[in-house]
Design a protein that fits this description.
This protein has 14 helices and eleven strands. The chain has 440 residues and is α+β, with helices and mostly antiparallel strands. Strand 1 and strand 2 form a beta hairpin. InterPro entries: Trig_fac (IPR005215), Trigger_fac_C_sf (IPR037041), Trigger_fac_ribosome-bd_bac (IPR008881), Trigger_fac_ribosome-bd_sf (IPR036611), Trigger_fact/SurA_dom_sf (IPR027304). Its EC number is 5.2.1.8. It is an enzyme of class 5 (isomerase).
Length: 440
């Protein structure tokens, strides 16, 4: 077997594989001999079928199969030995006139080569890392939310601005009939809440779905309609009041603190607020990190310039998926995925340049820490080391989970790299301002 390569340009090459008879003949002969031993052909005893008949019936199929196996192995080894960094997979050039009755064969494969480039993490313009803090207003609101959550319901005769109103939304034509409990702060504008004030059990309130809630997604929850149906829904619904309650706030006492955090973990309102601030800012840190990750990604995509073998990649996409694509479909798919493809190359370069690796022991520790956090959410605050290790072992036996966790850990390593190597400035911002600025 002989393999040669012709570099068309910096991003494209053609590999030619010449296969001679001696490369495959012994293997083909052995397989056909085995076939002969087990072949059941009418008119011949098992094991006594003439080899000429076996070759006539199975010879070409076996030859094609063995040559294809040789090709795949040869190309794979060649890419490794030559240390070729390719994009996609080698594409065989069409050969309509291939003669399988010949002794020797030649095949050509197109290669898309990964570009060579450098990544500069430290740009001239600083990228902002937002330190999101919980301000007093937010903490007070969270304290009130806790008091409401653990408070008790007191029945009322009529609706006030602080009422929790239970009733049934109906629209016979649209098939809407759903019991829900709402509060007036969910309703949009001033007119909608006013319709409820003073209402009593048994009253029916007519409402328009368009502009009913501050968040249109609440239509899905309270009317039990699908996401598609909720989008732009503009109909009238009736709401028949069946129950009116006001939530009496729970006392901020030791009994409540123990319910929330365990015995004596928090012993005062000041400690409660400190705990809320600490827990909130841990969650906010993840959002600040995600924003930084997104911004650094955009910077790297803008600042790292390189060409790609576009024609090859579009051709490869035509056959790479479960369903073949037309040339036009592959072009559209490439345009959608080019940005992602570029970032994968940049990320791979950073991982290689900075020798970022995910070791088994640190992956196990990462899994255990994640498990510990999840258990804490369900009130299991002090799991044993053995319990954590047993759960981690079950997770680590699942290849999909290992892949997912490895990607998360590598993402964390890249984030740490950006924080230390990129041009980063830190800005403190309240959570409300962060949401207004980036998610409004």
């Amino acid at each position: 077997m002989n393999i040669t390569r012709e570099n068309i340009d910096a991003l494209n090459a053609v590999v030619k594989v010449d296969i001679a008879k001696e490369d495959y003949s012994d293997k083909v002969e052995k397989i056909l001999t085995d076939y002969r031993k087990s072949a059941n052909i009418p008119g011949f005893r098992k094991g006594h079928v003439p080899m000429s008949l076996v070759k006539k019936q199975y010879g070409k199929a076996v030859l094609v199969d063995e040559v294809n196996k040789l090709l795949q192995d040869a190309i794979g080894k060649y890419l490794v030995e030559e240390k070729l960094d390719v994009l996609g997979n080698p594409l065989p050039k069409p050969q309509d006139d291939l003669d399988w009755d010949a002794d020797a064969f030649s095949f050509e494969f197109e290669l898309g080569l990964a570009p060579e480039f450098d990544v500069k993490l430290k740009g001239k313009k600083a990228i902002t890392h937002y330190n999101i803090v919980a301000d007093d207003k937010m903490i007070d609101n969270q304290v009130e939310h806790i008091q409401k959550q653990y408070g008790k319901l007191v029945s009322q005769n009529e609706v006030t601005k602080d009422s929790e109103i239970t009733g049934k939304f109906t629209n016979e034509e649209e098939g809407i009939e759903n019991v829900a409990t709402i509060t007036l702060d969910k309703l949009k504008g001033k007119t909608n809440p006013k319709k409820f004030i003073g209402a009593k059990v048994g009253d029916v309130i007519e409402l328009k779905t368009k502009g009913l809630f501050n968040d249109d997604h609440d239509l899905m929850t309270f009317l039990k309609v699908s996401h598609d149906d909720a989008h732009g829904l503009d109909i009238k619904v009736n709401f028949e009041v069946s129950e009116i309650n006001e939530r009496e706030l729970a006392d901020l006492d030791q009994e409540l603190f123990d319910k929330l955090f365990g015995p004596k973990a928090v012993t005062s309102v000041t400690e409660l607020k400190d705990k809320i601030k600490e827990d909130s800012e841990k969650q906010f840190a993840q959002q600040g990190d995600q924003k930084l990750l997104n911004d650094v990604t955009e910077y790297l995509l803008e600042s790292t310039k390189f060409d790609l073998p576009v024609e090859f990649l579009q051709k490869w996409m035509q056959t790479a998926g479960e369903e073949p694509m037309t040339e036009e479909q592959a072009k559209e798919e490439y345009e959608k995925s080019e940005k992602s493809m570029r970032y994968q190359l940049i990320e791979g370069k950073l991982i290689a340049d900075h020798n970022l690796q995910v070791q088994f022991e640190e992956l196990k520790a990462y899994a255990m820490e994640m498990i510990k956090g999840q258990m804490a959410q369900f009130g299991q605050l002090n799991p044993s080391e053995k319990e954590l290790e047993d759960i981690a072992a079950r997770i680590m036996s699942n290849q999909d989970e290992v892949k997912r966790l490895s990607e998360q850990l590598m993402s964390q390593k890249l984030l740490n790299l950006y924080k230390t190597e990129a041009n980063i400035k830190t800005k403190e911002i309240t959570y409300d301002d962060f949401v207004k600025e980036f998610y409004s």
